[in-house]
Design goal:
Layout (H helix, E strand, L loop, with lengths): L2 E6 L1 H5 L12 E2 L2 E2 H4 L2 H6 L1 H15 L6 H8 L5 E6 L5 H5 L4 E3 L2 E8 L6 E3 L16 E5 L9 H9 L3 E5 L21 E4 L13 E4 L3 H12 L3
Parallel strand pairs: 1-4, 1-9, 4-5, 9-10, 10-11
Antiparallel strand pairs: 2-3, 6-7, 6-8
Helix pairs in contact: 5-8
Amino acid sequence: MKNIVVLTGAGMSAESGIATFRDADGLWEGHDVMEVASLEGFYNNPELVLDFYNQRRAQLKLVKPNQGHLSLRKLEENYNVYIVTQNVDDLHERAGSSSVLHLHGELRRARSTKNEQLVYNWEEDLVLGDLCEEKSQLRPHIVWFGEAVPMIDKAVEVVEKADVLVVIGTSMQVYPAAGLVNYIQPDIPVYFIDPNPSIKESDFNNFTIIKSGAVKGVATLVNQLSHF
Protein backbone atom coordinates (compact mmCIF):
# COMPACT_ATOMS: atom_id res chain seq x y z
CA MET A 1 0.00 0.00 0.00
CA LYS A 2 1.01 3.62 -0.52
CA ASN A 3 2.46 5.53 2.42
CA ILE A 4 0.60 8.68 3.44
CA VAL A 5 2.46 10.89 5.94
CA VAL A 6 0.37 13.51 7.71
CA LEU A 7 1.93 16.47 9.55
CA THR A 8 -0.57 18.03 11.96
CA GLY A 9 -0.56 21.20 14.03
CA ALA A 10 -2.91 23.12 16.30
CA GLY A 11 -5.51 23.62 13.58
CA MET A 12 -6.09 19.86 13.55
CA SER A 13 -7.51 19.93 17.07
CA ALA A 14 -9.06 23.41 17.04
CA GLU A 15 -12.42 22.06 15.85
CA SER A 16 -12.46 19.75 18.87
CA GLY A 17 -12.35 22.82 21.09
CA ILE A 18 -8.65 22.84 22.00
CA ALA A 19 -7.17 26.34 21.93
CA THR A 20 -4.33 26.93 19.49
CA PHE A 21 -0.90 27.10 21.08
CA ARG A 22 -0.39 30.80 20.72
CA ASP A 23 -2.71 33.69 19.94
CA ALA A 24 -1.67 36.55 17.69
CA ASP A 25 -0.64 38.59 20.74
CA GLY A 26 1.89 35.96 21.83
CA LEU A 27 -0.21 34.67 24.71
CA TRP A 28 -1.32 31.12 25.45
CA GLU A 29 -4.52 31.02 27.52
CA GLY A 30 -3.61 34.46 28.88
CA HIS A 31 0.01 33.63 29.74
CA ASP A 32 3.21 34.77 28.11
CA VAL A 33 4.36 31.59 26.40
CA MET A 34 7.84 31.81 27.89
CA GLU A 35 6.34 31.73 31.40
CA VAL A 36 4.69 28.37 30.79
CA ALA A 37 6.64 26.82 27.92
CA SER A 38 10.32 27.18 28.81
CA LEU A 39 12.68 25.56 31.28
CA GLU A 40 13.47 28.99 32.71
CA GLY A 41 9.77 29.61 33.30
CA PHE A 42 9.50 26.26 35.08
CA TYR A 43 12.39 27.00 37.42
CA ASN A 44 11.14 30.55 38.08
CA ASN A 45 7.62 29.45 38.98
CA PRO A 46 7.14 25.67 38.90
CA GLU A 47 3.70 25.80 40.54
CA LEU A 48 2.38 28.13 37.83
CA VAL A 49 3.71 25.86 35.08
CA LEU A 50 2.43 22.67 36.67
CA ASP A 51 -0.99 24.23 37.20
CA PHE A 52 -1.07 25.45 33.61
CA TYR A 53 -0.54 21.95 32.25
CA ASN A 54 -2.91 20.47 34.81
CA GLN A 55 -5.60 22.70 33.32
CA ARG A 56 -4.67 21.64 29.79
CA ARG A 57 -4.79 17.98 30.86
CA ALA A 58 -8.20 18.47 32.48
CA GLN A 59 -9.50 20.17 29.34
CA LEU A 60 -8.35 17.23 27.27
CA LYS A 61 -10.76 14.97 29.15
CA LEU A 62 -13.68 17.15 28.03
CA VAL A 63 -13.04 17.09 24.29
CA LYS A 64 -13.31 14.39 21.64
CA PRO A 65 -11.67 13.67 18.29
CA ASN A 66 -13.36 15.59 15.50
CA GLN A 67 -14.41 14.17 12.15
CA GLY A 68 -11.03 15.15 10.71
CA HIS A 69 -9.26 12.86 13.16
CA LEU A 70 -11.72 10.08 12.40
CA SER A 71 -11.32 10.51 8.64
CA LEU A 72 -7.55 10.17 8.95
CA ARG A 73 -8.11 6.91 10.81
CA LYS A 74 -10.39 5.70 8.03
CA LEU A 75 -7.61 6.28 5.49
CA GLU A 76 -5.81 3.33 7.10
CA GLU A 77 -8.28 1.04 5.32
CA ASN A 78 -6.51 1.76 2.04
CA TYR A 79 -3.13 3.25 2.92
CA ASN A 80 -0.29 3.05 5.39
CA VAL A 81 -0.90 6.25 7.35
CA TYR A 82 1.82 7.79 9.52
CA ILE A 83 0.94 10.84 11.60
CA VAL A 84 3.62 13.23 12.80
CA THR A 85 2.02 15.79 15.09
CA GLN A 86 3.13 18.95 16.81
CA ASN A 87 0.11 18.59 19.11
CA VAL A 88 0.44 17.37 22.68
CA ASP A 89 -3.13 16.04 22.89
CA ASP A 90 -4.02 12.39 22.28
CA LEU A 91 -6.94 12.93 19.88
CA HIS A 92 -5.27 11.05 17.02
CA GLU A 93 -4.85 8.01 19.25
CA ARG A 94 -8.39 8.26 20.58
CA ALA A 95 -9.65 8.42 16.98
CA GLY A 96 -7.91 5.10 16.39
CA SER A 97 -4.85 6.11 14.37
CA SER A 98 -2.28 3.37 14.78
CA SER A 99 0.96 5.24 14.05
CA VAL A 100 1.34 8.60 15.80
CA LEU A 101 4.63 10.35 16.52
CA HIS A 102 4.53 13.33 18.89
CA LEU A 103 7.24 15.88 18.15
CA HIS A 104 6.51 18.17 21.08
CA GLY A 105 5.61 15.68 23.79
CA GLU A 106 2.33 14.52 25.32
CA LEU A 107 0.04 16.06 27.93
CA ARG A 108 -0.84 12.71 29.44
CA ARG A 109 2.74 11.86 30.31
CA ALA A 110 5.27 13.18 32.83
CA ARG A 111 9.01 12.79 33.05
CA SER A 112 11.88 13.22 35.45
CA THR A 113 13.59 16.62 35.63
CA LYS A 114 16.95 14.86 35.95
CA ASN A 115 16.65 11.77 33.75
CA GLU A 116 14.60 12.37 30.62
CA GLN A 117 14.47 8.63 29.95
CA LEU A 118 12.13 8.20 32.93
CA VAL A 119 8.71 8.89 31.42
CA TYR A 120 5.38 7.94 33.00
CA ASN A 121 1.76 7.90 31.93
CA TRP A 122 0.04 10.65 33.91
CA GLU A 123 -3.71 11.29 33.99
CA GLU A 124 -4.25 13.48 37.04
CA ASP A 125 -2.76 16.72 38.39
CA LEU A 126 1.02 16.92 38.59
CA VAL A 127 2.24 18.83 41.65
CA LEU A 128 5.44 19.70 43.49
CA GLY A 129 6.47 16.61 45.42
CA ASP A 130 5.55 14.15 42.67
CA LEU A 131 8.84 12.35 42.16
CA CYS A 132 10.30 9.83 39.74
CA GLU A 133 11.80 6.56 40.94
CA GLU A 134 15.15 8.35 41.33
CA LYS A 135 13.52 10.89 43.66
CA SER A 136 13.63 13.83 41.24
CA GLN A 137 10.68 16.14 40.65
CA LEU A 138 8.48 15.26 37.72
CA ARG A 139 7.65 17.78 34.98
CA PRO A 140 5.27 17.76 32.02
CA HIS A 141 6.51 15.58 29.15
CA ILE A 142 6.48 18.60 26.84
CA VAL A 143 9.23 19.97 24.60
CA TRP A 144 9.62 23.58 25.69
CA PHE A 145 11.19 26.49 23.83
CA GLY A 146 14.95 26.09 23.65
CA GLU A 147 14.86 22.33 24.23
CA ALA A 148 15.90 19.67 21.72
CA VAL A 149 13.19 17.82 19.80
CA PRO A 150 14.23 14.21 20.41
CA MET A 151 11.80 12.67 17.91
CA ILE A 152 12.85 14.82 14.95
CA ASP A 153 15.23 12.22 13.46
CA LYS A 154 12.50 9.57 13.57
CA ALA A 155 10.13 12.05 11.92
CA VAL A 156 12.62 12.61 9.10
CA GLU A 157 12.76 8.84 8.51
CA VAL A 158 8.97 8.72 8.29
CA VAL A 159 8.72 11.67 5.90
CA GLU A 160 11.35 10.21 3.61
CA LYS A 161 9.08 7.17 3.06
CA ALA A 162 6.06 9.24 2.03
CA ASP A 163 4.27 8.61 -1.26
CA VAL A 164 1.89 11.44 -0.32
CA LEU A 165 2.51 14.22 2.21
CA VAL A 166 -0.41 15.97 3.91
CA VAL A 167 0.02 19.07 6.10
CA ILE A 168 -2.95 20.06 8.29
CA GLY A 169 -3.45 23.07 10.52
CA THR A 170 0.12 24.27 10.92
CA SER A 171 1.79 27.43 9.68
CA MET A 172 4.95 25.49 8.81
CA GLN A 173 6.91 28.29 10.47
CA VAL A 174 7.89 26.49 13.70
CA TYR A 175 11.23 24.72 13.38
CA PRO A 176 12.46 22.05 13.29
CA ALA A 177 9.02 20.68 12.37
CA ALA A 178 8.68 23.06 9.42
CA GLY A 179 11.87 21.68 7.92
CA LEU A 180 10.38 18.21 7.53
CA VAL A 181 8.94 19.10 4.11
CA ASN A 182 12.52 19.32 2.85
CA TYR A 183 12.93 15.56 3.25
CA ILE A 184 10.17 14.39 0.90
CA GLN A 185 11.10 12.60 -2.29
CA PRO A 186 11.03 14.72 -5.46
CA ASP A 187 7.63 15.38 -7.03
CA ILE A 188 5.46 13.47 -4.55
CA PRO A 189 1.99 14.99 -4.09
CA VAL A 190 1.74 17.47 -1.20
CA TYR A 191 -1.62 18.59 0.22
CA PHE A 192 -1.84 21.60 2.53
CA ILE A 193 -5.07 21.94 4.52
CA ASP A 194 -5.59 25.27 6.27
CA PRO A 195 -8.32 27.93 6.25
CA ASN A 196 -5.68 30.66 5.97
CA PRO A 197 -2.71 29.07 4.19
CA SER A 198 0.65 30.70 4.79
CA ILE A 199 2.23 29.26 1.65
CA LYS A 200 1.34 29.16 -2.05
CA GLU A 201 0.85 26.28 -4.47
CA SER A 202 3.85 27.58 -6.41
CA ASP A 203 6.11 26.97 -3.39
CA PHE A 204 6.38 23.25 -4.20
CA ASN A 205 6.04 20.94 -7.16
CA ASN A 206 2.84 18.86 -7.25
CA PHE A 207 1.33 20.98 -4.47
CA THR A 208 -2.38 21.35 -3.69
CA ILE A 209 -3.91 23.79 -1.20
CA ILE A 210 -7.24 22.87 0.38
CA LYS A 211 -8.41 26.14 1.93
CA SER A 212 -10.50 24.77 4.77
CA GLY A 213 -10.48 23.70 8.38
CA ALA A 214 -9.49 20.16 9.31
CA VAL A 215 -12.96 18.59 9.25
CA LYS A 216 -14.01 19.70 5.78
CA GLY A 217 -10.44 19.70 4.51
CA VAL A 218 -9.76 16.06 5.34
CA ALA A 219 -13.08 15.08 3.75
CA THR A 220 -11.97 16.86 0.56
CA LEU A 221 -8.58 15.17 0.80
CA VAL A 222 -10.15 11.70 1.10
CA ASN A 223 -12.18 12.36 -2.04
CA GLN A 224 -9.13 13.52 -3.97
CA LEU A 225 -7.04 10.57 -2.80
CA SER A 226 -9.66 8.18 -4.17
CA HIS A 227 -8.27 9.11 -7.60
CA PHE A 228 -4.63 8.63 -6.52
